[in-house]
Amino acid sequence: MSCFRYPEAATTYSEFRAWIWSFGLTADSRGMVCEPDSPRKEEMEIQARWFGGEFGREFTGTEGEKIEIVQFGHWNRGAGPDFTEAAVRIDGELKGGAIEIDMDARNWESHGHGANPDFENVVLHVFTDGPSLNRFFTRTDAHRNIPQLQLPQYSWSQGPPDFLPEAFPGRCVSPLSAMNDGEVDSLLHSAAQYRMRNKARRLSVMADSTDPEQALFQGLAEALGFGPNKTAMAVLAQRCPVGELQKLDHVERDARLFGAAGFLRPDVMEMTEDPESHTYLRDLWDCWWKMRDRVEPIRTRAIPWRVSGNRPLNHPQRRIGALSALVGFWEKLPDLWTSPVNNLEKHVNNLVKNIEHPFWERHYTLRSNPAERSLRLVGKDRLRDMLGNVIFPGAIGENEAFWAEYLTLRKVDSNHKIRRAALRLFGPDRERQKLFTSYYHQQQGLLQIYQDFCLEDLSECERCPFPEQLTQWSRGGGAGSRAGEAG
Ligand code: SF4
To answer: Do both 296 and 370 map to the same domain?
Structure first.
């Protein structure tokens, strides 16, 4: 692994990036992309083909599960799921129930199935299309996660393709594959440093404008809300400053956070039949009504949460529970920033292991029944994002020597943008995709290039300047003086 001094490589990437874009390219000159129309297939036709066995009986679910349709069940002629009394074997476990088939995964919510008790016994959600950017999770009214199966999207006359990629490889695949591993590594490393420098600067500006502890608190809240509720968590952290939360006991703190988030209403206790949830909600409400007039935003200023389409473990209410538990450990956290310790990752891991919340270690939502097993308050990927997006940038802003330790931080698994960027830049070369996404900084470098070029491109790569300029990077290990050449 190459190790450039921080922030020299950031400067190199910054110059390389500026140099590429210095050729006068504008959004207009980059052209427009035409979204291909997805063929509109009739839902009933898919259901009939499914029921007739045309898709087969054995599939792989969206989470990689082995799915076998043991019995297709019966067409439902009334309200409720499409096929009842079906039997499905998922990873060897036989489940009886209903099957719902939609054109698009999101129809589950837009058709109101997620809040309809008639759909509680669905054991499999089948669909042909889903959101292009975000993963959508299917959950029941009781917040049970339903296994998903995405059928191949194909033209009925041509039959299914063998391979359905999440994104298409870009024009830069060829020049990148001509670069050796060291050259690609140096490019990603430099892009990652550039990204880190921007994050460190942002935190520093936030710390100067508010105070370091509040900036750290907001940063951690954003990392917990990643990705669909990042902004919502930032707003919540701003409306409930850490300095005020620290003065409250743990029940008042939860009440303040959940109330300000808009999750506590006068009828809140009626929303659950679970005795534990009922007791917890009553305690929260007893505190909340006393502070409500001072803290509750008016309706038009309510925080917009995304509660559907997330894994049950990622429900925003669980994230708020974790944020509240972090405040309980707050006196140990700000030191990470102002006087960073040796081996930051290990230190933070040990701290987070000790963070507890008796309710949120057992519940998915405020009104769900208790989970059978204890649930981690902060999972592996959330912890790495807290380290990579907040704690290391804060520490590196104080002491550049932490860059070397940051380079050892391992990858996160759950970021669809990284998967897409790797596919666009490395094509189907799985070995390179793996080699260059094993560490957090490599993933960040990829994301930076994706942001700088793929998201700026409106021509399906045709007018993207990145591929042509990569040879320059190979020749000199960076743009360096070429920034001057362009001028
Ligand atoms: S837009 Fe540019 S950087 Fe992105 S895949 Fe296409 S050629 Fe590569």
So the answer is: yes
Structural domain of 60 = 43-150
Q: Report which ligand 1 atom has the smallest distance to the Cα of 456.
A: 1
Longest dimension (CA), the chain: 71
Out of 399, 418, 445, pick the residue that ends a domain: 399
Q: Give me ligand 1 centre to Cα 436, in Å.
A: 17
Ligand 1 centroid vs 241 CA: distance in angstroms? Answer: 41
Instruction: Tell me if 292 is assigned to some domain.
Output: yes
Residues 277, 363 contacting (CB under 8 angstroms) = yes
Whether residues 249 and 130 fall in one domain: no
Judge if the beta carbon of residue 424 lies within 6 A of ligand 1. Answer: yes
Cα separation, 151 vs 64, in Å, equals: 13
Domains identified in the chain, total number? 2
Ligand 1 atom closest to the Cα of residue 465 is: 2
pTM of the model: 0.69
CA 128, CA 153: separation in Å to the nearest integer?
A: 6
Q: Residue 309 domain-assigned? A: yes
Claim to verify: residue 228 and residue 142 sit in the same structural domain: no
For 298-350, what is each residue's pLDDT tens digit? 777 788 888 876 777 889 999 999 999 999 989 877 677 666 677 889 989 98
- Please give the distance, rounded to the nearest whole angstrom, from the Cα atom of residue 483 to the centre of ligand 1: 21
| Ligand 1 centroid to residue 429 C-alpha, Å | 16
- From 172, 418, 455, the mutation candidate for ligand 1 (largest count of ligand atoms within 8 A of CB) is 172
The sign one gets for the Cα dihedral 327, 217, 254, 146 is: negative
Q: Cβ distance 455 to 198 under 8 Å?
A: no
436 lines ligand 1 (CB under 6 A): no
